[in-house]
Design a protein that fits this description.
Layout: H1 5-38, H2 46-57, H3 61-86, H4 91-105, H5 111-163
Transmembrane segments: 61-82, 117-135
Keywords: Membrane, Transmembrane, Transmembrane helix
């Protein structure tokens, strides 16, 4: 079934727009922070330093927004391609797409930055996956333990009811 243009825009607004806006805002804030830290004259009042950093960041914002769009689109396309190739959608597909996103976010900075971005997002993705898998395993074991305790309590109550 082919999606209409209106359905595609609605899907974009629901799913991808929030990610795009968040990434663009984070990149812009990070760049503003870098510019603020790079100002040599520390005797300027903070308000003037922030204004100067924002003026320096302004011309870079379109490039940051474009790199966020390319990175998000690249990640979505690579997830779709791997899912289509493997005929499934799994956590591994997202983990494989993170390095692609990291590389595409740094296209404008050259091949060395692309490699560093890919390695950075791959490390972040696999590290987060490892931490979350441990967390979910602990939560699952806790839920299983509680279920076993409830079952033991119910069987104990049932056996004591018959003995009376």
């Amino acid at each position: 079934m082919e999606m209409s243009l209106q359905q595609r825009w609605a899907r974009f607004a629901e799913e991808d727009l929030g990610t795009f806006v968040t990434c663009s805002a984070l990149f812009t804030a990070f760049q503003t922070g870098k510019e603020l830290h790079a100002i040599k004259d520390k005797l300027l009042p903070t308000g003037q330093r922030v204004a100067l950093a924002m003026r320096r960041t302004g011309p870079k914002v379109p490039l940051l927004v474009c790199s966020a769009a390319v990175g998000i689109a690249g990640m979505k396309l690579s997830i779709a391609a791997v899912s289509h190739y493997r005929q499934d959608f799994s956590r591994d597909n997202v983990l494989m797409a993170l390095p692609v996103c990291g590389a595409l976010l740094n296209v404008h900075r050259g091949s060395r930055a692309m490699a560093k971005g890919a390695l950075g997002l791959a490390a972040l993705g696999y590290g987060a996956d490892y931490v979350f898998s441990i967390y979910h395993r602990l939560k699952f074991e806790d839920a299983m333990r509680q279920h076993e305790e409830e079952q033991a309590l119910l069987s104990y109550q049932a056996s004591t009811r018959f003995e009376q």
